[in-house]
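Reopening closed ticket. The problem is back. First fold of the pair:
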Amino acid sequence: MTEARVSPEDQRWMQRCLALAAQAAGQTAPNPLVGSVIVRDGIAVGEGYHPQAGQPHAEVFALRAAGDLAQGATLYVNLEPCNHTGRTPPCTEAILAAGIRRVVVGMVDPDPRVAGGGIVRLRRAGLTVDVGIEEPACQRLNEGFVHRILHQRPFGILKYAMTLDGKIATTSGHSAWVTSPAARREVHRLRSRCDAVIVGGNTVRRDNPHLTSHGQCDGPFGPVSDHRNPLRVVMSRQLDLPAAAHLWDVTVAPTVVFCGPDPNPQQHETLKEQGVEILSLPVLTPQAVMANLGDRGHLCALWECGGQLAALAIAAGCVQKVWAFIAPKIIGGATAPSPVAELGFTQMTDALALDKLSCQPIGPDYLITGYLAHSHQAQQNDHLNPL
C-alpha cells in the first residue's frame, strides 16, 4: 500500500470517524466498528457509522447524508471499504457512484474477503486513496475484530481488582469492595463494550454477581448509542451451582453455562427450566469456550474470574489484554487469594511481560492496562489440568 500523506486535517477527520464508530461499541459483532465522514471544502457534509450487523455500512450512511455534495469530496473511513457482497452491497461501488474524488483509510481490513481489495478497486477507478491515517488508534478500536479474523476466537481481556499488596479478597473470601464506585463504573462500561463476560462456578457461588453493565454505556470516545449487556458465561465442570442466582434471570441478559460431559442432571434440568443455555463439552477448557464464542461471532470476551480460572485462561493463550484495578489498600494474609493462581513459573525471568502499558487514576484507585507479549500468546502449560 502507498504510504499515507498525513496532514493535521486528515488526522482530525479520522479521529471523528473513530468517535462515530465507537458509538456502536459492543453492538456490531461479528462486524467491526466503522465510522465515516465526507468532507468538502474543509466542511463535513455527511457522516455516519455502522450500527450493527445487517445494517448499512458507515460509508453508505455518510453518502446518504451528503447527497449531491459528495460529488468531488473526500471520504474518510477508519477501516477499508468492502469490495464484496455480503449482507449488504459493496461500499466501493457506492463510493464510485457518488463521485467521491479521494478516500482516506485508517487501516486495511484483515478480513480475507477484503484485505486490500477495496483499496485496489478504488485506485483502479482513478480515485486517490491514502491509507494509514491514525492507524494505531484504528487498530486499537477494532482489536477484537482483528483478533477474531486472525485467530477465529474472541479477543480476551482479563480484568481484576486487587489491593496494593496483590489481594483480591481477604483470607475469609470477603471481597466487597476492593475498589471504589468509580472503578466499578469503569468495569460496567467495559462490559457494555464486550460481547461476553466469563466467570467460573466459584465466583457464582461466592459472589452471586449480575455481570451486567448496570446501565453504563459510555464508550472510549463518548456515549454509545444504546445500553446493552453482554452474554453471561459460566464455566462449571459438574454444574455444582446454586439453584437461585442473579445470572439465572435471563430477562436481564442471556446466560450460557459450559460444563463437562457428566454434569449434575438435576441441576442441568433446573437451569434449563429457567431459560439458561447449557452446553456440555467433552473437555471443559478456556480454549473450547472461546472457540464456541468465536463461532457465535463474538469479538471480545471479558474474563472476570478468580485466580485459578485466570491462570488457565492465560496459559491457554485466551487472554490478550489485562485490566488491573489497584486500590490503595493493604489487607495482608499469606493465604488471601491473588488475581492469578499457579502458572508453574519458578524464576522471575519466566514472568509474562506486558507491553503498551497505560496507567490512569480512577477515583482513589489506579487502572493499569497492557497487552501480554506476543511470544506468550500461544503458550501451553502442560502441568495445568482442564477446569
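Second fold of the pair, where the issue appears:
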Amino acid sequence: MSDVLNHEKALVVFSGGQDSTTCLFYAKQHFKEVELVTFEYGQRHAQEIEVAKAIAKEQGLKHHILDMNLLSQLTPNALTSTEMEIENSHHVPNTFVPARNLLFLSFAGALAYQIEAKHIITGVCETDFSGYPDCRDQFIKSMNVTMSLAMDRDFVIHTPLMWLNKKETWALSDQLGVLDYIRYQTLTCYNGIMAEGCGTCPACKLRQRGLEQYLKEKEEISL
C-alpha cells in the first residue's frame, strides 16, 4: 500500500467484533487519521454497542454511532429478534440481515462525505462469508462505484479481510501486534458473550476453529 495513504483519513465500519477490530488496527497502521462508525440496528445484544464504545475510547478514536433501528423493522431475522433461533441450515442463514451492508455502506459514505474521509474500511469477507450475499467482492466493487457516482466523490472501499479465512485473519491480527487484544477484548458471539464466546453459535465456532488452526501452525513453525 502506498505511503500516500498515511496522509489521508479513513472511516472504519466498526462493530467491536473480531473482524472490524482487526480492520481498526489495520487502518491505524495505514492511515494518518482514523474514525469509527457503529450502527445500532436493534441487534440482539446491546452489549455489542458497549464493546464498540469501549474499544473506541481505549484507542482514542472519534466514534460515530448511527441509529438504524428501522432496519430491524423492515427485515426481522435471528440477529434482531430474540424469538428466532439462529439457524445455518438454509442456503442463506437466518442471521442474514437483508440490505444491511447496502445501507451501512451508504450511510458510512454519507458520513465519510461529511468528515472528508476518502477511505472506508469494512471487514466483510468472501472466504468465510457464511452465505451472506452482501459480503461478496462483487457487491463491494459495485457499491464503491455507486457511492462515488451518487456523491461525486472518489471513495475507496477497502476490504483487507476479503480473501482471508479465519486462520489468516488471526494471523493478520498477530502481524499487527494485537492478537491477544482481539482475542480477549472483542465480541463476535451471536449470544452476546465476550472474548471466546458461547462456543456453540456459528460465529463462535468459526472464530475458535480459525484461532486453533493459527496457533497450531504458529507453534509448528516455532519448533
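Update: turned out to be a display glitch only; the data is intact. Residues 77-82 have pLDDT under 50 and may be disordered. The longest helix spans residues 202-222. Please close again.
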